[in-house]
Amino acid sequence: MADPATNAPETVGVKTIQTRQLHANPHNPRMLFDKAPLDTLRRSIEKVGILVPLTVYWSKSQRNWVILDGQRRWMCAQDLGLKTVPANQVAEPSLVQNIVTMFQIHKLREDWELMPTALKLQVLIEALKERRDKQLADLTGLDQAVVVRCKKLLSYPKKYQDMMLVPDPDQRIKADFFIELYPVLRDRNVRAMEWFRPERFTAQMLQRYESGHLTAVTDFRKVKQHINVAVEAGRTKAVTDRLREFAEQPELPVEHLAIQSAAVAAKVQQIEKATKALAQLLQRMNAEDFYGEDKLWVQLEQLVDLIRLRLGEVERRPK
Q1: 8 Å CB contact between 189 and 242
Q2: In what order do the strands lie in the sheet with 54-59?
Q3: Using an 8 Å Cβ cutoff, are 107 and 117 in contact?
Q4: Calpha distance 231→224 (Å, rounded)
Q5: Across residues 259-287, what is the average pLDDT?
Q6: Percentage above 70 pLDDT, the chain
Q7: pLDDT in tens, 9-60
Q8: Furthest-apart CA atoms within the chain: distance in Å
Q9: Alpha carbons 214 and 192: distance in angstroms, whole number
């Protein structure tokens, strides 16, 4: 496993570089640059200039300057006709150094689309022969949950990956759609259904999504819940038929899959009631008055661990 500390290119120095001599980094995890944020940055640069120098290296093979950090600033400089830009030069990185540095410089910002990041993570996986989530997270600086989400996107055929790379954000299919659909596609009960074909089912769900018959992508969580409840109740045949109808008829609601869900609803109400009662008790208590009650604190710690475990099982994290 590569050590992140050994994958940082050496700093060379600060200089001014002609804008036209710079080139985008082919390994930038960020491939999509939406217009609105760029317009905001462009107006700022127009008023005060580029305050944070770009980070660049000289490519010996390509005989040009390549950007490690600051592609949006460079794009705005081009639009504004700036002849030069300030830049910090670092030594030319290796392939692994390049990708790791790009990840560690940028991390993963909220406005980034996930599919381009997944594609660059795939290059790193192949170069290092490393697939373990924690090791990849430590190397790139990405949250481990983000690594898991990226790997889910990489499991889809290229035509679906391309839908997440469309330049126009209004035409782009969000990565969340495919991430939320993934557990249904991978459900062993679903995959055992005789009629089920993953790619066809994906296309059917896309049709439902694009036609507005999917309330939210999180509806797929309800789909999986209905399937699990039906299977546990011994109603596999019934839910198999209903899921097929749900796939073939976009107008059918998610509730069409509900079979013997009253027991789950009752448990939900029970848990919600107990949760509210415990929350009220904890809000009213003065922690210092219970300082020496070790048994109480141990039980609360165990409860926290259990809550985190259950949240993790449905891919949710405490905010």
Answers
A1: no
A2: 11-18, 84-90, 54-59, 64-69, 22-23
A3: no
A4: 11
A5: 83
A6: 88
A7: 555 557 888 888 888 887 776 656 667 777 888 888 888 787 778 888 888 8
A8: 71
A9: 24
Query: Looking up tokens 């609105």, which residue turns up?
Result: 36
Three-class secondary structure of residue 129 per DSSP: coil
Contacts of 114 (CB under 8 A, 6+ apart): 108, 146, 149, 150, 153, 164, 175, 179
Q: Cα separation of 124 and 98, whole Å?
A: 10
Tokens of 8: 């940082």
Q: How far apart are CA 102 and CA 69, in angstroms?
A: 7
Answer with the residue of higher pLDDT: 149 or 106. Answer: 149
Q: Which pairing describes strands 64-69 and 22-23: parallel, antiparallel, or unpaired?
A: parallel
Two structure tokens written together for 250 = 């976009």
Asked if residue 118 lies in contact with residue 155, where contact means CB atoms within 8 angstroms, the answer is no
Q: 161-169 — which CB contacts under 8 Å span 24+ positions?
A: 161/115, 161/118, 161/119, 164/113, 164/114, 164/115, 165/31, 165/32, 165/113, 165/115, 165/116, 167/32, 169/32, 169/34
Report the distance separating Cα 132 and Cα 121, nearest Å.
Answer: 12
pLDDT at 232: 83
* CA separation for the pair 137, 124 (Å, rounded): 12
